[in-house]
Amino acid sequence: MKNYILTLLLIAGAASAAPILTLKPANGALQVEPGGTSGWGFSLTSDDTRWLSVIGSTLLTESNPGLGTYSDLIGALGGPVDFALAPLAPAWQLDFDNALGLGVGSFTVNANAAIGAVNSGILRVIVEAYSDSPSVCGGNCVVETLTFDAPFSVSSAVPEPATALPVVLAVIGLYARRVRR
User: Fold this and answer.
1) Which residues pair with 135 in a beta bridge?
2) What CATH number labels 18-180?
3) What are phi and psi of 143, to 5 degrees?
4) pLDDT tens for residues 70-123?
């Protein structure tokens, strides 16, 4: 019986770990001012034996597609080195940076969007798994196409008070200076 349990443990331990994609923020929820842009960062773990290359991302089942525009960013990146994530490599992690084009994707809320309007659905990332480095096999060694689906929501939000605070303090300072004279 002990040999049987040990054999099961060895088989379970030998099974390869599937890659995992996690959005940042983890709940997929963004709050964006009308006319503003924000987006999602990510973490993608490597596979034990296969090379991974991200093909692109898209939004599915949007509840309010008129709220704004989605732009794929991760598809142009493909991976951290030569457009791929090597087997057993450390997780590929990027924070969203619109200026540098980093992250899964960006969402620009229409300038005339009503405050509190929401668009939600599924953000899908498409990844191809290769038996060898895609740069070596020229794309001829694709073994599987993987899809990662994560819930997302984008809310049209009131501008952050932190951006208005310096203006208010400056106006108060100018008024106080004028009163003293």
Assistant:
1) none
2) 2.60.40.10
3) -110, -20
4) 999 999 999 999 999 999 999 999 999 999 999 999 999 999 999 999 999 999
